Amino acid sequence: MINNIVDFFKNLPAKQCTKCGSYIEEQHECYNHTCDECTDIKDL
User: Fold this and answer.
1) What is the domain range of residue 12?
2) 35 vs 1, 12, 14, 21, 39, CA distance in Å?
3) Which pTM value belongs to this model?
4) Pfam families this protein is in (predicted)?
5) How many domains does the chain have?
6) Hey, CA dihedral for 35, 26, 30, 43, is it positive or negative?
7) d(CA 1, CA 38)
């Protein structure tokens, strides 16, 4: 059982890109699974 939700999110491991394996520099609970370099969506 989770005692403190803040501790739960602080203890999540850093996310890694599923394509190249580099660590993603953003919140761990986000939905992205690829880093900015490997993402197919480009800024206009």
Assistant:
1) 1-44
2) 32, 18, 12, 9, 6
3) 0.58
4) YhfH
5) 1
6) negative
7) 36
